[in-house]
Structure formats: C-alpha cells, structure tokens
Amino acid sequence: MTSAQTILILGAGLIGATLAWRLARAGHAVTVLDAGLPAGAASGRSFGWINASYFACEAHFHLRHRAMQAHHRMVAELGETGHRWTGCLWWEEEGAALDRAAGALTALGYPLHRLTRAEVAARVPALAAPPEAALWFPGEGAVDAAALTRRLLQAAADHGARLWSGCAARRLIVRGGRLAGAMTDQGPVMADQVVLCTGTATPELLAPLGLTFPMLGRPGLILRSRPVAARIGPILASPGQELRQDGAGRLLAPASAAHQADSAERIADLPGALAEATLARLRALLPGLGIEPEEVIAADRPVPGDGLPALGPLPGLEGGWLAVLHSGVTLAPLVGELLAGEIAGQQAAELAPFRPARLM
C-alpha cells in the first residue's frame, strides 16, 4: 500500500490505539471500532510493567528490548504520557538460579547490575527482609495503559481518525478473497485494510471464516491499594510477589507470583480471597505502611496458543491483519511502528517469527 487508504481497526485497546495514531499520522483514513469503551478489556486492567527481563525465546527478547526503546520515541513524539522509568529490583529467583538469569540477560546485552543486600536495603528501606542479592534493571518502567490508550486515541483523532465506541463488529465481511470490512448492528463498515486488535474475542470473529486461531486461557487479577505515604521507588519482583507504585502512591500487585509466566487457566478462588492473600504478602514484604485495599481488577489476558505474539497478515485473506499479543504494554509502541509500516508495504524482518500463519 503506497497511497492513503481507508483502514478499519477493530479494538480500541492499547495496540489498536497505537496503530490508529501511527496510521492516521501517515495520512490514512482510520476508523476504530470497539464493542465497549477504549481500554475496556485487558489494556485497562494491566499491571503496566515495561520490560524485556521476561521473555520466551531470543527473538521475543529482542522484540521486547526494541519495544522499550520505542516507548521513549513515543514519549518524545507525544509529550507527557505518564511513563515512570523507575527501574526494577528483581529476585524472583535466588542463588544459582539468579546467577543463571543474570548470565542469560547479560549475554543478550540487557543492562543490569547485581546488588548486595545492603544495596537493596538502601534503595528500598521499607523492605522487611532485603534479599541476599538482587538484579537491578535500570531501564525498566511502567505506564498506566488505560490512560496511554486514551492519549493515543486523542492524538489519532487530531490527525483525523474516528473512534466508534459501543459499536461491536458482529462479523467480518469477505469479498473476493479479501477482508473488506465488518458488519455492525447498524450496518457494514467497509475499508481497504482491516486490522484485528481484538484480543480474546479474535477466535470467535475468525471462526465463521473457517479460520481457527488458538488462544491460551490466562485470566489474571490485580490488587490496587489505597495510596500510601511511603515512596517505594522501583518495581519489585520478589519470589512471592511483584508490585509497583503509581504516581498517586497506590500499590499495584498481581495476585499470582511471577504473573507474566503464570500458566493458570482459571482463577480458582473468589477475587476477595485472592485479594486478601495478596494483601497479606504485601504487608509482610512492606510492613508498617498501613496498606489497605482499594480495588480488585480481573482480566483475561490475550495470549496466542504458543504464548508468543501474533502479528501480521491474516493467511489467505488480502487486506486482513492481526495484532494479538501479551504483553501489549511492553510491545505496543514497536508493534505500532512496524505494523503500520507493513500495512504501507514495508516488510519488518523483526516480525517474521511472530506471523499468525504459524498458528492457523
């Protein structure tokens, strides 16, 4: 695609918003449809951690690492976005396992420092029992994904993009072997290019076309506390609990340890019980802060069947594109850059390992 065309993006989460901004800036006529409100699904219920210390394979690491750099480009172009580059203290593994993790990341070129117990205590005085050693990842940070989604959609609108919230795509429209649009309750919305940023709703949309898109069931739950006076500083990743603090002083804590690699297919307990257990771990980790719960947030994370992102053309359907992945928070800026380029005809070698065709 070398000239301006009409582009329909299904899904107004962080991935859809980033693509809408990039494509509208490039002069294309962009329409974004969402069955609910912007960031109403996983993007609005995210822990918000930006990192490449978690990765599934070497190609996945490099994609995530490049995405961290893309976040800084996004900030430079958009202005204030709420990003907080606090760094991360990581000791989810200890002893020899921590050494192996440090060695693997160092070999991949990831910036890190090994800290002693005294150095950890100096960085986070509120810790009850600082670990004997931890890894310090200075380049990591976090962002409120819902706020960033809204910021991106506004920036896209400034370049002419249209957002239709509360407008569900009931089915996809195919004409002559080409994905040509989507049918809503009010009628068809047609476009030259159609991008599915539809998260966990993707299999249901593709099934009537005879396309099977496998996804893993990966529900998650996050506890958000009331603001605490103490400033924690970095993101903390301990063996039993990950947590970060937002700009207002609230603590955000996933209910499962090492939540990025969590493979549970269902939430086994009531949210209240999981929140109480998470709260107990937080109070043990950071005693004396008077931590009280404010909100429990549950979400189904959009994880393709092999755990890796699915990015690029829909097999067998001209004009059709797919962008379904976890973690969208880390990867969104780079995905926006690369997929917008691909839709314009510029192939991105970095996306070759992550094509949807491998799953379909």
Report on the structure:
With 360 residues, this protein is α+β, with helices and mostly antiparallel strands. The chain folds into two domains: 6-47 and 145-215 and 305-359, FAD/NAD(P)-binding domain (3-Layer(bba) Sandwich); 88-138 and 219-300, 2-Layer Sandwich (D-Amino Acid Oxidase, Chain A, domain 2). 28% of the residues lie in helices and 25% in strands. The protein contains eight helices and 21 strands. It has helices spanning 14-25, 58-78, 96-107, 117-123, 145-158, 202-206, 271-285, 328-343, and strands spanning 6-10, 29-34, 49-50, 88-90, 113-116, 133-137, 141-142, 162-165, 171-175, 178-184, 187-190, 193-196, 215-216, 219-225, 235-237, 242-245, 251-254, 293-300, 303-304, 310-313, 320-324. The strands form five sheets. Strands 5-6-4-15-16-17-14-18 form an eight-stranded mixed β-sheet. Helix 1 packs parallel to helix 8 (328-343) and helix 2 crosses helix 8 (328-343). The radius of gyration is 21 Å and the shape is globular. The mean pLDDT is 94.
